[in-house]
């Protein structure tokens, strides 16, 4: 569904050919990030060497079992025992050499994992049950803004993610871009990502975090610097006042009902912080941490019954009349 | 109760050899019927019971696995909601690790080690009875909670804060923590019994270099249990305290730390996997001899590899925490130590290959399982080496790649040898042979089904599928492989079913087994199949590593033990020279009372801290009853 | 298989003492388990201390008096304890009776001192992680004292019954004495941790 949008590849944000759309958009084997590309090479190399090791063991096993034996050979005989000892010593030496090489390779590759510096684009990523809170941090406080579940980054630049677990432990993982890193309460972590090509990359929480661990996805949208700047500027703005009547009444409902207690829509009185910032929710590709493509219909379905769609999540069912539901979803969809 | 069958101080040598068995049987007997089942301290009865129970847990844990595979066969399946699924995988993992894999290995040892070292009962037989009851109680607690929809749902390693007071609502995490207490208690008790049995009750002449490799493996394993389990005891106790009385061990807001839990858990959890694997490796080293028809190559190397693995096992735990954000330099140290364990593992593999190379293989079911083990375990070991690399692990940690790794090592590395061992020692356990035809069928189903089920999981993990997700969305390209895996699991499960059918049928109708059906060289085969209550009418005297191959007709023995009381020989630690004719305790109901009192205290303490105070009184009473001398001949000195 | 008698066991004693006794080894094994537990609990203390910016967290260091008194009493108790073990080895029932009564009393006194030790920590278990870990360390050690005291009391009663004059009982007394040494030995690092590390 969300993928479908990606395949269509239309719209100003997707002007660049979407490489990630060709293959798997969440895979350590289909890589478009600097870190992930390096990791893939390492993975392939180690897997290849290990495959050879396994094959050699298998050959030895097969020959050992089915080789022809001299009928008279009986009890263990010293010369044969000695020869086998030498063979085993040789195999042990080979093992030591291989694991030694692996260790050195790993050590070198590890040092290349986190490279972003202070002046790179910095995003605070907060893991919550079961969505991602995002805050773009600039040197200038007025440049800061909040969003959720959808990270935009400029292509070809290091992006520094400051990872914070706010409730339980989560893990930030967008395999096509980089390896994962946990978000541990009380212990902030960091991760550098850098996309080599424009595209939409999916990620998913990788540390079991409770009921809806399965539905805690996020999207990373890598785009050319200009597009990114345009997007960021738009995000900094407060929400536009609804023009249509239906949406306007939706805003009223939103403020009157408990919605506003948990969500923020900048530019309105809604300033809750328990749930994701909704200021530009209509412009995000997916709602409910990757569960549905954002449409008026999916928004309405979600609001009507969040607990059936994503059982256990922290959004309660807010009773609305059908008209109110229609109006609120129209309002939210209008928040581009 | 039962008085001495012969006059005080009658010696075995004074009795006619034909009458000796009946006299000893009277002294060592377990009363028939229900009462006998409750009071027995015979390591064979308890061992059999232990093994049986562990296999029951394997079967129901397997049912949970099947349920997970049905759910995951297609995207967005709604057979289970997240709440149930999370309980199911937690139960599967916790059940398989704590109620099946660790106990089953100790159970086999409870049965075999006393026979293999040529003694009449395990050391501390009453503790042995107690440990079984406690184990059973822990299992029943866990499964009852699951049946009541109170099963733990925090994963088998129950990371805080998810399992802590704030996020782990209800009593689910407490059940998990208390189940740990039960199983650790029983595992520790068995470990102590095994260490002392192996140190002090070996047959005269069984010097350190004449100990069968399986017994060595159990010795190393027991030390691992002794040194590793306290970590999880401390961890689970702290967790319960955090949840019940408001301590802050794991609360970062009050000076606690979430990663402290992970350190404590894995300081136990990593050795735990070798607690499962080393006995299996020992089984392979011991079983391979009759089927290769030669001594295992490199006895010293095999034993050293076990010891080296045991020591290294304590230096690896951080490799489960590579993405938790610890200092990178430290991580790299743990990469190196984890990789290093490939050396002792390799030495064992190479020695087994050499044994087969030089031997004359007999292709019976146990050997098939050994072959299946080598094929599969090496894959699992190599993927272990892969995930031991920090950068590699940042991509596959907590994905199906890791699920594949640990099933390869757990099932391929431990369950395959175990199944081989069941076929191999079945005659000693039951007096009957297992069907060779069914055995081979089940082997092929299991090995094919296993690899088809778990190999594709490596690919899924690399393709980005995290573990512990109750479902996945259709726009992710995982459904093809998942369907394939679920269908393959049917073959695997069919293989296990056939194995169970074979075992149950053979136990009743199998061909009656001779004493030593495989022409095996170790002492347990010198006894009858199954062995009498006293194991050996006279204690064997050992002069080599393969006593039954030195002389297939006669068994050198020692005479002079009393027959009017339960008596066995205590020997020196290294040289196995006789030191004393020690008494071995009689049947007793007290271990059961102690276990019941302990169970009440532990379950009660899930709900109130006062349980620890009031509940300990009946425990103390039961223990006093247990140890109070009853004035039987065993009390003489 | 046919049996061939190659060894006579008839002259062996009916019960071995010390390293020839299985209970001695069993006690040793349990001491290893518990020693590992203590070591890990201390490791937890050090870990949390290392993590904290100030230590102790929101509390003054514990009062030295009760803990130091405890240490003294435990150290002093070693003297009769070792004597008792020696008398048991010599199988001197009269002296063992006297010794075990003394050891019972010397086991109960520390429990009384312990009652004053908990408040001297000046922090509650539920105030913060520091409070949690010191209470746990102290609690862990207290359970060991209690276990040993109960064991000593039961043995004391046994020594005055007809079961007393028995090699096994003397062995039990020795094992019990060894365990008390262990309880005293484990106290020292815990004492250092709780009372002195908090003053660094
Ligand atoms: C029986 C159980 C068992 C065994 C034997 C092993 C064996 C090994 N394991 Fe595994 N493991 C086991 C059970 C588990 N492991 C886990 C997870 C796990 C992780 C963490 C992964 C992660 O969470 O991201 C690492 C790094 C390893 C490493 C290893 C290594 C290096 C070995 C080595 O011992 C393997 C050595 C064997 C080898 C290498 C093959 C034979 C050697 C030959 C043939 C010589 C030639 C070899 C070379 C040249 C390399 N394991 C988990 C997951 C826990 C969880 O998260 O739920 C479990 C249950
Ligand atoms: C019939 C054979 C088996 C099948 C089909 C199977 C299947 C699975 C699957 C699919 C998972 C992943 C669940 C998830 O992440 O959502 C899993 C987890 C696990 N399995 Fe198995 N399994 C089998 C046997 C075993 C055995 C024999 C053991 C142990 C000896 C074992 C130990 C574990 C453990 C420890 C976990 C991790 C649980 C957790 O994440 O908390 N499994 N198994
Ligand atoms: Cu490990």
Automatic annotation (TrEMBL), chain A:
GO terms for cellular component: membrane. It catalyses: 4 Fe(II)-[cytochrome c] + O2 + 8 H(+)(in) = 4 Fe(III)-[cytochrome c] + 2 H2O + 4 H(+)(out). Its main location: membrane. Residues 118-234 form the Cytochrome oxidase subunit II copper A binding domain. It comes from the Bacteria. It is an enzyme of class 7 (translocase). It is found in: Membrane. Residues 245-336 form the Cytochrome c domain. GO terms for molecular function: copper ion binding; cytochrome-c oxidase activity; heme binding; oxidoreductase activity. Pfam families: COX2, Cytochrom_C. Keywords: Copper, Electron transport, Heme, Iron, Membrane, Metal-binding, Respiratory chain, Translocase, Transmembrane, Transmembrane helix, Transport. The chain crosses the membrane at residues 42-66, 86-109. GO terms for biological process: ATP synthesis coupled electron transport. It is a multi-pass membrane protein. Subunits I and II form the functional core of the enzyme complex. Electrons originating in cytochrome c are transferred via heme a and Cu(A) to the binuclear center formed by heme a3 and Cu(B). This is cytochrome-c oxidase. The lineage of its organism: Bacteria, Pseudomonadati, Pseudomonadota, Alphaproteobacteria, Hyphomicrobiales.
From TrEMBL, chain B:
The chain crosses the membrane at residues 50-72, 92-117, 129-148, 175-199, 211-240, 260-284, 296-318, 333-355, 367-388, 400-426, 438-460, 480-501, 613-629. Its main location: membrane. One of its GO terms (molecular function) is heme binding. GO terms for biological process: electron transport coupled proton transport; oxidative phosphorylation; respiratory electron transport chain. Residues 29-543 form the Cytochrome oxidase subunit I profile domain. InterPro entries: Cyt_c_oxase-like_su1_dom, Cyt_c_oxase-like_su1_sf, Cyt_C_Oxase_1, Cyt_c_Oxase_su1_BS, Cyt_c_oxidase_su1_bac. GO terms for cellular component: plasma membrane. It comes from the Bacteria. Its EC number is 7.1.1.9. SUPFAM superfamilies: Cytochrome c oxidase subunit I-like. Pathway: Energy metabolism; oxidative phosphorylation. The keyword NAD does not apply. It is an enzyme of class 7 (translocase). Belongs to the heme-copper respiratory oxidase family. This is Cytochrome c oxidase subunit 1. It comes from Bradyrhizobium stylosanthis. The lineage of its organism: Bacteria, Pseudomonadati, Pseudomonadota, Alphaproteobacteria, Hyphomicrobiales.
UniProtKB/TrEMBL annotation, chain C:
Keywords: Cell membrane, Membrane, Transmembrane, Transmembrane helix. One of its GO terms (cellular component) is plasma membrane. Coiled coil: none annotated. Its main location: membrane. Pfam families: COX3. The chain crosses the membrane at residues 21-48, 64-84, 96-113, 133-158, 179-198. This is Heme/copper-type cytochrome/quinol oxidase subunit 3. The lineage of its organism: Bacteria, Pseudomonadati, Pseudomonadota, Alphaproteobacteria, Hyphomicrobiales.
């Amino acid at each position: 569904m969300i993928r479908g949008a990606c395949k269509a590849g239309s719209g100003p944000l997707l002007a660049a050919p979407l490489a990630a759309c060709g293959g798997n958009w969440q895979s350590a084997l289909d890589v478009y990030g600097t870190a992930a590309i390096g990791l893939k090479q390492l993975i392939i190399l180690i897997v290849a060497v290990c495959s050879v090791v396994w094959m050699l063991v298998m050959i030895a096993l097969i020959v050992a079992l089915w080789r022809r034996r001299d009928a008279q050979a009986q009890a263990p005989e010293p010369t044969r025992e000695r020869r086998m000892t030498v063979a085993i010593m040789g195999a042990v030496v080979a093992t030591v050499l291989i694991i030694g090489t692996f260790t050195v390779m790993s050590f070198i590759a590890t040092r290349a994992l986190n490279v972003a510096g202070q002046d790179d684009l910095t995003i605070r990523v907060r893991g919550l049950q079961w969505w991602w809170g995002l805050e773009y941090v600039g040197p200038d406080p007025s440049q800061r803004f909040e969003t959720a579940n959808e990270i935009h980054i400029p292509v070809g630049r290091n992006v520094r993610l400051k990872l914070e677990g706010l409730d339980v432990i989560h893990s930030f993982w967008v395999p096509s871009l980089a390896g994962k890193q946990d978000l541990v309460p009380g212990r902030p972590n960091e991760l550098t990502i850098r996309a080599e090509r424009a595209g939409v990359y999916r990620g998913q929480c990788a540390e079991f975090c409770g009921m809806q661990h399965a539905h805690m996805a996020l999207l990373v949208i890598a785009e050319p610097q200009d597009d990114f700047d345009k997007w960021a500027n738009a995000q900094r703005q407060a929400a536009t006042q609804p023009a249509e009547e239906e949406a306007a009444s939706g805003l009223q409902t939103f403020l009157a009902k408990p919605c506003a207690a948990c969500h923020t829509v900048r530019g309105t009185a809604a300033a809750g912080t328990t749930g994701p910032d909704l200021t530009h929710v209509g412009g995000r590709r997916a709602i409910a941490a990757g569960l549905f493509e954002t449409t008026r219909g999916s928004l309405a379905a979600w609001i009507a019954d969040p607990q059936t769609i994503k059982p256990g999540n922290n959004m309660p069912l807010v009773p609305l009349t059908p008209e109110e539901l229609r109006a609120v979803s129209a309002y939210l969809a209008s928040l581009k | 109760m039962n008085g001495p069958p012969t006059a005080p101080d009658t010696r075995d040598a004074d009795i006619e050899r034909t009458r000796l068995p009946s006299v000893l049987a009277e002294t060592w007997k377990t009363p028939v019927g229900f009462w006998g089942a409750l009071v027995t301290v015979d390591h064979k009865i308890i061992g059999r019971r232990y093994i049986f129970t562990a296999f029951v847990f394997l079967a129901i844990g397997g049912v949970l696995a099947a349920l997970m595979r049905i759910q995951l066969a297609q995207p967005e399946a709604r057979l289970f909601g997240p709440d149930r699924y999370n309980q199911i995988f937690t139960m599967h993992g916790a059940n398989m690790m704590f109620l099946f894999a660790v106990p089953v290995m100790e159970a086999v040892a409870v049965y075999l080690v006393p026979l293999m070292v040529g003694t009449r009962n395990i050391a501390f037989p009453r503790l042995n009875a107690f440990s079984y009851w406690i184990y059973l109680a822990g299992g029943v607690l866990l499964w009852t909670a699951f049946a009541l929809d109170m099963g733990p749902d925090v994963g088998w390693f129950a990371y805080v804060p998810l399992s802590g007071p704030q996020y782990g609502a209800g009593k689910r995490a407490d059940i998990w923590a208390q189940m740990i207490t039960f199983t650790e208690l029983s595992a520790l008790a068995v470990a102590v019994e095994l260490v002392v049995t192996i140190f002090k009750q070996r047959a005269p002449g069984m010097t350190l270099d004449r100990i069968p490799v399986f017994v060595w493996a159990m010795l190393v394993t027991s030390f691992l249990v002794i040194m590793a389990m306290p970590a999880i005891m401390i961890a689970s106790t702290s967790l319960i305290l955090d949840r019940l009385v408001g301590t802050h061990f794991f609360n970062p807001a009050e000076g606690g730390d979430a990663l402290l839990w992970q350190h404590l858990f894995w300081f136990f959890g990593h050795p735990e996997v070798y607690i499962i694997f080393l006995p299996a490796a020992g089984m392979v080293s011991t079983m391979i001899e009759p089927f290769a028809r030669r001594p295992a190559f490199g006895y010293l190397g095999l034993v050293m590899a076990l010891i080296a693995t045991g020591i290294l096992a304590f230096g690896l735990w951080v490799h489960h925490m590579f993405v938790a954000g610890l200092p990178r330099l430290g991580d790299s140290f743990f990469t190196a130590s984890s990789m290093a364990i490939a050396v002792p593992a390799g030495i064992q593999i190479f020695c087994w290959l050499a044994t087969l190379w030089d031997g004359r293989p007999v292709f019976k079911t146990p050997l098939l399982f050994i072959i299946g083990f080598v094929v599969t375990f090496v894959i699992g070991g190599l993927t272990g080496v892969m995930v031991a690399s920090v950068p590699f692990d940042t991509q596959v940690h907590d994905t199906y790649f890791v699920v594949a790794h640990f099933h390869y090592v757990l099932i391929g590395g431990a369950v395959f040898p175990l199944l081989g061992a069941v076929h191999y020692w079945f005659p000693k356990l039951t007096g009957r042979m297992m069907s060779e035809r069914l055995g081979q069928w089940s082997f092929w189903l299991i090995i094919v089904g296993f690899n088809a089920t778990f190999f594709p999981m490596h690919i899924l993990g690399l393709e980005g599928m995290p573990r512990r997700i109750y479902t996945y969305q259709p726009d992710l390209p995982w459904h093809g492989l998942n369907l394939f895996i679920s269908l393959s699991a049917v073959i695997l499960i069919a293989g296990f079913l056939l194995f169970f059918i074979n075992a149950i049928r053979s136990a009743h109708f199998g061909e009656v087994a001779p004493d030593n059906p495989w022409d095996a060289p170790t002492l347990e085969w010198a006894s009858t199949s199954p062995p009498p209550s006293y194991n050996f009418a006279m204690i064997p005297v050992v002069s080599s590593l393969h006593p039954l191959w030195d002389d297939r007709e006669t068994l050198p023995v020692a005479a002079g033990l009393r027959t009017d009381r339960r008596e066995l020989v205590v020997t020196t630690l290294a040289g196995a020279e006789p030191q004393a004719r020690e008494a071995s305790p009689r049947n007793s109901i007290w271990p059961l009372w102690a276990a019941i009192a302990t169970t009440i205290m532990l379950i009660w303490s899930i709900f109130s801290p006062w349980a620890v105070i009031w509940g300990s009184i009946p425990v103390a009473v039961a223990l006093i009853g247990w140890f109070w001398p009853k004035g039987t001949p065993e009390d003489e000195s | 298989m046919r049996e061939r008698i190659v060894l006579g066991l008839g002259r062996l004693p009916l019960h071995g003492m010390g390293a020839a006794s299985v209970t001695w080894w069993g006690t040793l094994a349990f001491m290893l388990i518990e020693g590992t537990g203590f070591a890990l609990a201390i490791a937890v203390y050090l870990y949390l201390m290392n993590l904290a910016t100030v230590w102790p967290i929101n509390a003054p260091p514990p009062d030295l008096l009760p803990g130091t008194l405890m240490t003294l009493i435990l150290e002093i108790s070693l003297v009769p304890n070792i004597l008792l073990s020696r008398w048991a080895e010599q199988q001197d029932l009269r002296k063992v009776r006297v010794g075990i009564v003394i050891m019972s009393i010397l086991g109960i006194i520390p429990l009384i001192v312990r009652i004053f030790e908990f408040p001297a920590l000046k922090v509650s278990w539920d105030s913060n992680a520091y409070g949690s870990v010191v209470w746990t360390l102290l609690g862990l050690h207290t359970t060991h004292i209690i276990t040993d005291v109960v064991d000593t009391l039961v043995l004391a009663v046994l020594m005055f019954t007809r079961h007393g004059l028995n090699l096994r009982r003397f062995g039990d007394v020795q094992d019990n004495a060894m365990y008390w040494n262990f309880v005293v030995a484990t106290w020292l690092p815990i004492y250092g941790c709780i009372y002195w590390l908090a003053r660094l």
